[in-house]
Amino acid sequence: MKVIQLFDQYSEFYQPYIPPVMDALREQSDIVVEVVAFRGELKKSSNVQILPKYNKRRIFSRIFQLFNNSYKGLDYFEIKTLKDKVDIIHVQHSYLFTKVIRLLQIPKENRPKIIITLRGGDTYIKPWIGEKWRNFYRDYGNKVDAFVVMSEDQKQYLSRWGVSLDNIQVIPISFGKQFQSIPKVQNENKIKLVSVFRMCWEKNIDDNLRFVKVLKQRNIPVSYDVYGDGPDFGQVFYLRNKYGLIDEVNILGKINNEDLKKKIKVYDFILQLSFSESLGMSVIEAQSMGVPAIVSENGGLPEIIQDGINGVIVDLESLMDGVDKVFSIWESQSDYFTMSKNAIERVQQKYSVENEVARLTNLYKQLG
Predict the structure, then answer these.
(1) Residue 209 pLDDT > 90, yes or no?
(2) What pLDDT shows up at residue 12?
(3) How far apart are CA 268 and CA 175, in angstroms?
(4) Could you give phi then psi for residue 193, rounded to 5 degrees?
(5) How far is 259 from 75, CA to CA, in rounded Å?
């Protein structure tokens, strides 16, 4: 079975968890996996195929069409997959659906199977504001052989755009390969919180800061480190000042994933009170190293957390109750240690590269 993983650019993108999955897929003995990208730096050691530039692709496609009538109307990449007898195209950057849309007009038995992985914005946001996305889901949602989403919540939300639930597979992203992690104990003098996310409205920056404000009002010693950048980065500075949290909140900007992994265990909880979230990669990564999470009830976040067992789920209408739960756990060394242990076990069991690759391989075999 021959599978193409299609990217816009490889491997310079913000998802550091993708290359380990590609490497693990290549190790499968019964599947030939090729990583193909439209842009990127070609390195001999990378095993990545960079497609020709646009003008060259146009010339090549016209030459192919001169010699084979069945290629008319197809572009270079689509022709290439037919010539190479590719079994499955897995589109990893979802907006590249335009690069396979003509294949979807060919009978299924005469073309590669098409899989498209969707991130949160592709489901929760883009169809509301983009006619192109609404039309794609309406016209091609059930011609695509499978959509891959991160959570059950995202699956249900995608179905509102006309995609059959039977056509949607839940395969969560992974933190990396399984490893041994030791449960941690809490800091003694203050609750140390951390957030790592793109600064945008979906992440609900306001309630994250208000949660810290409530802790301070309760005279609970707290520090809060915020990593990330994005369009609403300035909001963190404004709210830190508005809520009187200059001493408690440290705004640290963007951080390399490897550097973050070295720092994360100094924190007691990762805080993510998002309005919209397909799953929450930073939460999964933190839990893999024993840092429990404080999350909202929104999106796929509650699918990661068992409230009171491996983290805390907060009702945004009652931040005070959430603060009480968190403080109660932090006060008890045994309760906190148990929660840290549970966080490790659940994430290592459900969200490792090994699990993601097994699910992807099963999907490929079902379609192939």
Answers:
(1) yes
(2) 63
(3) 19
(4) -105, 155
(5) 42
Surface-to-core class of residue 343, CB atoms within 10 Å of its CB (0-12 exposed, 13-18 middle, 19+ buried): buried
**Helix, strand, coil fractions of the chain, as percent rounded to 5:** 45, 20, 35
Encode pLDDT of 235-261 as tens digits. Answer: 999 999 999 999 999 999 999 888 998
- Whether cis (ω within 30° of 0) applies to the bond prior to 328 is no
Cβ atoms of 178 and 328 closer than 8 Å = no
Q: Is pLDDT of 44 > 60?
A: no
Count CA within 13 A, CB hemisphere, residue 240.
16
**pLDDT tens figures, 78-115:** 999 999 999 999 999 999 999 999 999 999 999 999 99
Q: Tally helices (H) and strands (E) across the chain.
A: 15, 13
Helix (H, G, I), strand (E, B) or coil at 165: helix
d(CA 38, CA 75): 13
**Does the pTM exceed 0.85?**
yes
* Residue 155 pLDDT greater than 70, yes or no: yes
The sign one gets for the Cα dihedral 254, 92, 119, 271 is negative
Average pLDDT over residues 266-291: 96
> Residue 131, exposed/middle/buried by CB under 10 A (0-12, 13-18, 19+)?
exposed
Q: Which two tokens stand for residue 98?
A: 């335009």
* Cα dist from 117 to 39, 64, 114, 264, 308, whole Å: 19, 29, 10, 28, 32
C-alpha gyration radius of the chain? 23
